[in-house]
Amino acid sequence: MDRLNEILFQYIMQNETFDFDDYSGIYKLSDIILNSKVPNFTDKVKNRFGISKSFQLSYEFFNCLDESYGRYFLDRVNSDDLILKYVKVNKETAYSYPDEDGNKKIYLPYSNDICDCFALTHEMFHDMNLQVNNLSITRSLFTEYISMYGEMLLEEFIKNNYDIKCSFCSRYTFNGSYLKALKVDIQLKLVKCFIENGFIDYFKLDEIINNYNPFYRNYLVKYINEIISSEDLSIGYEGRYLIGILLSCYSKDLVLNKKYDIDTFLGINEDINYMYPDEVYNVLDLDVSDQYTMELTSGSYDKLAKSYSKHMR
Ligand SMILES: [Zn+2]
Fold this sequence. Notes:
The longest helix is centred in the middle third of the chain and has 31 residues, at 167-197. The protein folds into 2 domains: 2-40 and 170-311, no CATH class; 51-140, no CATH class. The chain is globular. It is mainly alpha-helical. The chain is built from 13 helices and 5 strands. β4 and β5 form a beta hairpin. The strands form 2 sheets. Strands 1-3-2 form a 3-stranded mixed beta sheet, with helices on one face. Strands 4-5 form a two-stranded antiparallel ribbon. α6 runs antiparallel to α7 and α10 packs across α13 (298-311). It binds zinc ion. Zinc ion (ZN) binds next to α5 and α6. Zinc ion (ZN) binds at residues 122, 126, 144, 147.
């Protein structure tokens, strides 16, 4: 308990200008997700789907977006920068990252099912917009959006061109995003409680945890232990996935209403490191109400909430 209080104290001190309002934007994002219905998550992926088939489908998808994307894909998978690892049971997460020498790497644990195709596509988008010498805040805010919306486009591509069932992959994503929203929400509640009381004791911690759906309480207790062992909060990091899923659902509706198209999406992917965050929101027809905290107007949050509950599975 002392450790948790120390971490919260450090966190608030590091964010010297810490003002709870700075996080009201991200709080609203987690609120939208937690106030919608709980994702219907069924873990039933059993059909074998070879990794080479996943590579083939992902390549076809990128090539269909644009031939230059197809060439990029081939170039990256044929380089030494792709680290493939077969995992049988515990699903590890894939990620793209720059190594100590500044080389872009993609780490992809795979499990021989179709979700590999989605993970590969997701990481390939990260790899595309990662500029090792130009790590921008805008990219950090929106790279999950690009990768997650990319996965939704992949799902459409597969549905339109093949008789392959893959919609459960997006249920994984929705379920994962719901868990991220819980993580953001509880961290904000811990910070708020600490600011208000100067410390958190077991009684207050219980009170916070008991406010959540009983189904997720164990998960949150484990998560608090993770915070303690990692010695830091991760509000901003997890928050990127909330922006990601909400903007992805919303983009689907923009496309349906002919206010957005693939080329505009590819433009964001290519220019993300040279854009300001509010420019990205502007392209998506969303209004920022506060340039400093990147909070949106209530009308814009409403749009996000509407699309999320419409597309959430
Ligand atoms: Zn990602």
